[in-house]
Amino acid sequence: MTSKTLSRRQALTFIAGAVLTERTFSQSAWPDHTVKFIVPAGAGTGIDVIARLLADQLSRQLGQPFVVENVTGAAGIVGTERALRAPPDGYTYLVGFNQIMSINPHLYAKLPYDPVRGVAPVSLVAKGGGYVLIAGPTAPFNTFDEFIRYARAHPGELAYGSSGTGSIAHLGMELLKQRAGIDLLHVPYRTGSDVTNDLISGRIHVRLETVNSAVPLVRGGRIKALAVSTASRKRLLPDVPTFSEQLPGFSEIAGWNAVWAPANTPAAIVERMARELAAALRDPKVIQRISDLGTEAQASTPAELAQLTEKDFALWGNLIKQQGIKSIE
Question: HSE-up of 232 (CA within 13 Å, CB side)?
Fold first, then answer.
């Protein structure tokens, strides 16, 4: 072995060691400056409130600013693209909802992000409180069982509303149609309030509504609550049955929120962020505030979030294909 060869190898070893030391140092020192949460929804929405709660808590835990940036548009696609195209250095995260990873890929012919290879799952942060199937005051049925029997006896005569094609309120009703063997007419609206107004006036017959939004209407006698989409009955609506009580094996319909990083973000930083989020989600004030939104604080490991996304991806993908729901160009 020549001295020249030895010198070159020593140099390469030094360079490799320096790179490793720099990488290890940067990860162990993380975060050493501001961390950004990109929310693909407007200020004041449920996911925005959750992101700001977590940002405040993480700032206290880690001693660095965590800031929230709202980037709206195209069912969360614009904000998702912005977050996932950021440098994978552990300083930009997407705080979003299940639709962007498990539904949009099946609804849109082209997406500017890859929901599998373009992301690094970090942690679940909240599971939704589910939905209530509600009916207008003049609907010709008063219970979930009566609704199913009426719909089977009058195929195509009942209409349901949603706030748009591809929304959970739309796909959830399509899943109900499929599992119950009924035929309903879908009427898409621009806003959820328009759907509810037409439900109360009798222009449409049923819709899926979030639990928190449905409860005041039920208690005020303005609508009928037929069933809840969660695995068990809701504390706020103890007398309202679940879908699965009438339709055994029915899948739970509940939204969820999570944090993702751009692909190739160092695993050590992803795992650290997941642990910090879990700690933040154990704080009693955070738990209560998220509960006030009608959701449940819930953390996960990166692997568990990947598994949940894969499960939802398959559920909604199969439904969209089987029901012939057309993709959006």
Answer: 2
